[in-house]
């Protein structure tokens, strides 16, 4: 059984990006092309196509290679084939015919560029009124339809031998999800451009090559540390800046007097600094009560607790670290108590009487 022929829909013409060639595009229909799909890869319902058109749908599409013509009117002619259900909605009787014509024209321009590198100027795109199909030079419409149907039939037979997964995956990767016309116009664009086949960076691109010279990259080479960098340059030029961090004090510019030797040749006598007096305890107060005497002592600066204190007591005196305190009354040596007050830094001795 023969396949039905390709159904003509509409045709439009457009100039190439360089404006030198005129291209005619035939938008046709055939049932071998898949129907419009939703994002979940399910066939779009007929009611959705009638109500919303091609918005948010995946449209399967097939593009023939542009054929160069000898005629003066068009330089190239190509066919773009979609499902018949979309071509039927491009007729004037349908309420969304303008929407379908606009969207299919945009898809045709995008896929002609992707498949064959032929960029068309969207601003010069015009419908060819009075025609539904532009014939190739030397061929009538019936011959072209039969050849297109045979090509589609061969594609269907090849696809039947593959699994379902092999059919779905190419559709997802091939169909364009964003069907927008590009308004940018490139100057002096070639008619057919070669699509890139490889990545920009390939394996082994650094073989027999060096990123830096013999001295390295120099990224970590920083100027030496300057501790006086916070001082402005004009002040550093006019004033003499002395760094006193090494000596710990401000250097004096006055030189010390030179020591003159004695006339008789004896070496000068150097005076030794006086010895520091040993730290001693000081008695702050002596309070005699009816039953005891309270002694408050101020410790040396190096004493901050009871640790290391040597306390000796006799009935008439108390000696602490060499400091002796004489008492006017006899005290009970075994009942003497001592307490160090850290807040006031004092030693409190309570000595009960005998």
Question: Secondary-structure map with pairings?
Answer:
Blueprint: E1 7-15, E2 22-29, H1 46-52, E3 62-63, E4 67-68, E5 76-82, H2 84-88, H3 97-116, E6 126-127, H4 141-160, H5 164-174, H6 233-238, E7 282-288, E8 292-298, E9 311-314, E10 317-320, E11 323-326, E12 337-341, E13 346-352
Parallel strand pairs: 2-5
Antiparallel strand pairs: 1-2, 1-6, 3-5, 4-5, 7-8, 8-13, 9-10, 10-11, 12-13
What can you see in these coordinates?
By secondary structure, this protein is of the alpha+beta class. Among the domains are: 7-174, no CATH class; 282-352, Immunoglobulin-like. Helices cover 19% and strands 19% of the residues. It has six helices and 13 strands. It has helices spanning 46-52, 84-88, 97-116, 141-160, 164-174, 233-238, and strands spanning 7-15, 22-29, 62-63, 67-68, 76-82, 126-127, 282-288, 292-298, 311-314, 317-320, 323-326, 337-341, 346-352. The strands form three sheets. Strands 1, 2, 3, 4, 5 and 6 form a six-stranded mixed β-sheet that branches. The chain has a four-stranded antiparallel β-sheet with strand order 7-8-13-12, with no helix packed on it. A three-stranded antiparallel β-sheet has the order 9-10-11, with no helix packed on it. The N and C termini lie far apart (139 Å). Residues 159-188 have low confidence and may be disordered.
């Amino acid at each position: 059984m023969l396949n039905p022929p390709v159904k003509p829909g509409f045709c439009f013409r457009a100039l190439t990006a360089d404006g030198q060639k005129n291209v005619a595009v035939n938008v046709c229909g055939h049932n071998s092309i898949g129907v419009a799909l939703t994002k979940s890869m399910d066939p779009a319902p007929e009611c959705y196509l009638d109500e919303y058109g091609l918005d948010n749908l995946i449209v399967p599409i097939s593009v023939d290679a542009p054929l160069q013509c000898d005629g003066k009117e068009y330089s190239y002619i190509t066919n773009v084939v979609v499902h018949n259900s979309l071509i039927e909605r491009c007729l004037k009787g349908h309420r969304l015919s303008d929407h379908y014509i606009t969207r299919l024209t945009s898809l045709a321009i995008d896929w002609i560029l992707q498949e064959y590198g032929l960029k068309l100027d969207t601003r010069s795109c015009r419908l060819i009124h009075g025609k539904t199909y532009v014939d190739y030079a030397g061929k009538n419409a019936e011959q072209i339809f039969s050849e297109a149907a045979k090509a589609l039939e061969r594609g269907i037979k090849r696809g039947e031998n593959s699994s379902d997964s092999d059919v779905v995956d190419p559709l997802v990767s091939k169909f364009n999800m964003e069907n927008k016309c590009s308004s940018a116009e490139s100057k002096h664009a070639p008619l057919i451009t070669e699509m890139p086949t490889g990545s920009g960076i390939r394996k082994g691109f650094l073989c027999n090559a060096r990123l830096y010279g013999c001295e390295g990259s120099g990224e970590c080479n920083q100027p030496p540390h300057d501790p006086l960098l916070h001082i402005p340059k004009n002040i550093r030029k006019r004033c003499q800046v002395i760094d006193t961090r090494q000596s710990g004090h401000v250097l004096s510019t006055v030189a010390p007097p030179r020591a003159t030797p004695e006339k008789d040749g004896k070496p000068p006598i150097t005076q030794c600094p006086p010895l520091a007096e040993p730290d001693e305890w000081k008695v702050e107060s002596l309070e005699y009560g009816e039953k005891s005497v309270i002694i408050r002592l101020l410790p040396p600066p190096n004493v901050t607790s009871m640790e290391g204190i040597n306390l000796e007591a006799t009935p008439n005196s108390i000696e602490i670290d060499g400091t002796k305190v004489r008492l006017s009354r006899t005290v009970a040596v075994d009942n003497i108590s001592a307490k160090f007050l850290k807040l006031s830094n004092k030693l409190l001795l309570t000595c009960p009487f005998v």
